Each structure stands twice: as structure tokens, then as C-alpha cells.
Amino acid sequence: MAVTTHKLIVGNSNNVSELENESVNLIITSPPYPMIEMWDDMFAKQDNGIEIALKSENGIAAFESMHRLLDNVWNECDRLLKRQGFICINIGDATRTINGKFQMYSNHARIIQKFSSMGYSVLPDIHWRKQSNAPNKFMGSGMYPAGAYVTYEHEYILIFRKGGKRLFKGEEKDRRQKSAYFWEERNIWFSDLWEIKGTSQGIGNSKKTRDRSAAYPFEIPYRLVNMYSVEGDVVLDPFSGIGTTTLACMASNRNSIGVEIDEDIAKIALDNIVEQAPKLNNYVENRISKHIAFINGLSDEKKEACYINENHGFPVKTRQEVDIRIDELETFKRDNDYISCEYKPIRMFDQLTLF
Hints:
Blueprint: E1 3-10, E2 24-29, H1 40-46, H2 48-55, H3 59-80, E3 81-91, E4 94-98, E5 101-105, H4 107-117, E6 121-129, E7 154-161, H5 171-178, H6 183-189, E8 193-195, H7 207-210, H8 219-228, E9 234-237, H9 244-252, E10 255-260, H10 263-276, H11 280-296, H12 300-304, E11 307-308, E12 315-316, E13 327-335, E14 338-345
């Protein structure tokens, strides 16, 4: 029976001393965004020079000071990440008017610069376009040129690799084959444009926690976990927030560690994880339903060319998919800031009934 463990650490992610060097396989996170006002106080509490820069309307100085704080976290991530591991960072650029001057502060470019300086391979990034119900909104001078400016409706998912290509041997090779994704998922997940509805930043009734959450949709870390790790790997989120990355790992049979500086949010996160855990199997089962719908949509000729997945009995497009085994969460247990999960294989399907 497969088992995973999930731990939430309360503390500053610039120094997670209880974790050993090169102890995690993958890092997925969405940090506070520099120069977005909702996070000004959080940055300023760690460096009072940021508050001084903002009050003196020196946006560039504030921007750079905020990123130097994030640099300390990226340095710690580098210590914790194994060679050949990946770091995936969801970040948005900021637009802001300071001292009467409107401009963009390019957070994604500054983070790329940092990881390049550490010797990481910068891989093609993903644009997460947040679906909007207000396509007619505009900013600036409206319909008159030339004072209007573009409305940002996307964020970046930056992807970095530490060292060369990961090699899989023995038991790790078996886990890799089991962790393969479906052909049609690969075509969607490895596109450079993801259109996924955003998640509300509001959690609980506390203004303090509501203003400090950087929640992103479950689909984002779920995809990234499955794209850049194999079952049994350890995934770290240094800005854990309400625990969305942890949930994605629980649904994917990966181990996880989350770090959250705010004790109030950490408590909410643990409650949120326990509340959402029973719903994870619905998501996993829906993944299989989508695959079966895809197969049923193929022409008879293409169906006949399919292979049969050995663990579930349904057809798949390629030979690399025949060993996929998708488990569902059977039990989970919380012990303070620690959660353990046990899994069972999803039932076999009669492939004849699919057609």
C-alpha cells in the first residue's frame, strides 16, 4: 500500500534549518508579488528600508529591496533542491503609480535574472491567462490616445532546472513509468498558454489572513507536480499559503513539505487541507473520465491503433502510457502539523464497454 507524508513548517523560508541539503525533488510555489500593495506590509516588516523607499516614492529601490528578500528564499531553495530538480514559480508582474509615474515592475524578469546568476537552466515558461468575465475593461485614458495602457490578464509560471537531465534507474524507472501522463494531457499541459480560472484571494473571516493569501487554482500545482516529478518524490512549497500545493501532492501520490511564515494562515491551511482531502478523489476520477471521453471521441481506425493500459484496462494512445497507474486516496490522518495518506488502486475498467 502506497503511503505519503505531508508536513507544514511555520517559519521563514529563507532558513529552513530542519531540512537537509538536497532533500527535495521539486519546488512549486507562488511567492508574494513585489510592488503589489497587498504585500507591502509583509515585505516592510522584514526590511524597514522598503517602507522608507515607498514613502519617499522611490519605486525602483522598493522593488529591488523586495526582490533581495525573495533572493534569500531562492538561495535556500537552491540548498534544498536535488541536482536535476526543478523549480516552478508562479509570479505576476506589477503595475503601479508612484510619484505620479505609472510603470510596470517586471517581477518575472528579475527572478529569471536571479536563477540565471545561480547557474540554473531557464526553461520555456508558461503564461497563465486568467479567464475574465469583464472583457470590456480598460485602464488609462479610455478611448483617447495616447494615454491608455494594456490590462494585464496573465501571470507567469517560470520553470528552472538545477543541473542536467534527471536519469532514472531501477526502482525510480518503475515509478517514472507508473507516473506517466496521458497523451492528450501532455498536449495541453506542455503548451505555453494555460487558460485557467483564477482563485479568490479571500479566506476565512480575518482581514489579516485574507490579505496575505496567495492562493492559486488547484489545477496549476496539480499539473506541475505531475509534469516534473514522479510518485514518491518530495515536493517543497516555501510559500505554502492555504496548502494548495500540498493538496496537489496528496492527489498525486507525492510527499510534500510546506513552509508558511504566518502562523494564522498555517492553521487555516491545515484545516483547509483536511476539509478538501475527501474531495480529491473526485478530481482524480474526473481525470480518468476525461481520458475515456477522449478515447471514445477517436475514430474507429484510431481506436484500433490504441494500446491497453495494463493497470486499468482502458485504451491509451501510446506505448508509454501502458504502465500508468492512478491511485485514489483511501485514508488520511492528521497529527498536529503532519498528515499521512494511504492509497489504493482505482478499479479496473472493461475496455469493451468504452466503445
